[in-house]
Design goal:
The protein is α/β, with parallel strands linked by helices and about 300 residues long. It contains eleven helices and nine strands. The protein has helices at about 5-10, 25-30, 50-55, 85-95, 115-125, 135-145, 175-180, 195-200, 230-245, 260-270, 280-285; strands at about 20, 35-40, 65, 105-110, 130-135, 185-190, 215, 250-255, 275-280.
């Protein structure tokens, strides 16, 4: 990467709009009223588990965001498992947590920060820029012996959030993906486990396999052995090798249900490669009705 590109990445990663926050930085701001912490822990096989773990212990002052109830709309026949939430309902929930455009919001989970990245992406979708993910998440916070509380925070004074306008250019629907299958100038990146992508195993959805033409970039490839994101320069090198000369808006991120794909979106943001888009329905929507399916590796 050129020195100017490195400087651009460093500049993007500094300041109040940086998409990552370290555990040390969050610990230093736990009493700052402008900082709001959001716990996004979730178990895809037990939707009640995240709330139970939150009640047992969480970062002091953290609010709990239910992936199923807050970060998604109810599913329906033919849709993916985690549709985008209703804008008014999600905005109301942010206000109930005391979040304003001035707030520095930090989300975390215990699953490689994909659920936290979903929260980050949703806030960016609505135009909130001062939102970040806790690098290393809950596991790093605990490993460092930092403060944990089982006390539920006092109800926040509902924030006076302005009418948030979603930026719907940040995502695509199933019709767009269907129409793009024959186009050579579009890249679909599938963030699922390689065995799910290949169709060897499918524990959650109706059919196994992947969308024809999609390539696999397992989201945990973005992380080091401690669960922290790789350095920006390394992420940029890896994604640039996958994307080549394509413009970022022609890169579509998907997974099983629009969650782990947000980890890849965050990684690309860290790498200075902004503009890639999310397909929220992902594989769970694609395979819900009869559509083309591929198995094995793409040639």
């Amino acid at each position: 990467m050129s020195s100017s590109a490195v400087q651009s990445v460093v500049a993007h990663s500094a300041g109040d709009e940086a998409p990552l926050v370290s555990t040390a930085e969050l610990a230093a701001h736990l009493l700052d009223p402008l900082w709001v912490v959001v716990d996004c822990r979730h178990d895809p096989f037990d939707f009640a588990a995240g709330a139970l773990r939150y009640q047992e212990g969480h970062i002091p002052g953290a609010r709990f965001a239910s992936v199923a109830q807050d970060l998604s709309a109810p599913t329906a026949a033919g849709r993916g498992r985690h549709p985008l939430p209703d804008v008014e309902l999600f905005t109301a929930r942010l206000a109930q947590w005391g979040i304003t455009p001035r707030s520095r919001v930090v989300a975390y989970d215990a699953s490689g920060n994909s659920y936290a990245a979903r929260f980050w992406w949703l806030c960016r979708w609505l135009g909130l820029s001062r939102v970040a993910v806790l690098d290393g998440g809950w596991d790093k916070w605990i490993a460092e012996g930092r403060a944990v509380s089982s006390e539920l925070p006092d109800p926040a004074v509902a924030a006076a959030l302005p009418q948030l306008q979603p930026n719907d250019s940040m995502w695509v629907d199933v019709a767009f993906v269907e129409g793009a299958l024959a186009q050579d100038d579009l890249l679909l990146i599938d963030a699922r486990l390689p065995e799910r992508y290949r169709g060897d195993d499918e524990p959650q959805d109706r059919l196994a396999g992947h969308i024809p033409g999609a390539i696999n970039r397992y989201y945990k490839a973005n992380l080091d052995p401690h669960g922290c994101f790789l350095p920006a320069e390394e992420l940029r090198r890896q994604f640039a090798a996958l994307i080549g000369p394509l413009p970022m808006e022609r890169v579509i991120q998907q997974c099983g249900a629009g969650i782990n794909a947000c980890n890849n979106l965050l990684a690309m943001e860290l790498a200075g490669l902004q503009g890639s888009r999310l397909y929220p329905g992902s594989w769970s929507e694609w395979c819900a009705v009869d559509r083309p399916i591929a198995v094995g590796e793409e040639s």
